[in-house]
Amino acid sequence: MKVIDMRDHYDFSKSVKNPYAKKLKKQVTIRIDEDTIDYFKALAEDKDMPYQSLINLYLRDCAQSHKDLKIKWE
User: Fold this and answer.
1) CB-based burial of residue 51 (10 Å sphere; 0-12 exposed, 13-18 middle, 19+ buried)?
2) Which of 29, 54, 31, 56 is nearest to 42 (CA)?
3) How far is residue 61's CA from residue 55's CA, in Å, rounded to a whole number?
4) How many other C-beta atoms can be found within 10 angstroms of the C-beta atom of residue 58?
5) Contact present, 39 and 8 (Cβ < 8 Å)
6) pTM (2 d.p.)
7) Under 8 Å between Cβ of 53 and 43
8) By CB neighbour count within 10 A (0-12 exposed, 13-18 middle, 19+ buried), where does 40 fall?
9) For each of the chain's 74 residues, which pLDDT tens digit applies?
10) Using CA atoms, how far apart are residues 36 and 52, in angstroms rounded to an integer?
11) What angle do CA 37, 43, 44 make, to 5 degrees?
């Protein structure tokens, strides 16, 4: 059986690094209330996008605008 080396068929000499590599996403486990997930799922359906992407966009917006959560315990 003849082994074909991919380098013989493709020229990678002009390739460039992925410009989005610094923005790759990291998978995490997080506990979120069911009603909160339901809210984002419904909102994401209206926007025609995955709900996890919508949550990510919302959290990114909060982080970029330095939004501070006001917690008041009763």
Assistant:
1) middle
2) 54
3) 10
4) 13
5) no
6) 0.64
7) no
8) middle
9) 676 676 677 887 888 888 877 778 888 999 999 999 999 999 999 999 999 999 999 999 999 999 998 888 87
10) 12
11) 85
Residues 54 and 47 sit within 8 Å (Cβ to Cβ): yes
Cα-flanking dihedrals φ and ψ of residue 68, to 5°? -110, 130
- Going from N- to C-terminal start, the domains of the chain cover 32-66
Collapse the DSSP code of 20 into the 3-class scheme (helix H, G, I; strand E, B; otherwise coil) and give the result: coil
**DSSP secondary-structure letter at 34?**
H
Residue 54 CB partners (closer than 8 Å, separation 6+): 40, 43, 44, 47
Query: Using an 8 Å Cβ cutoff, are 55 and 40 in contact?
Result: yes
Distance of alpha carbon 34 from alpha carbon 11, whole angstroms: 50
Q: Helix or strand or coil: residue 70?
A: coil
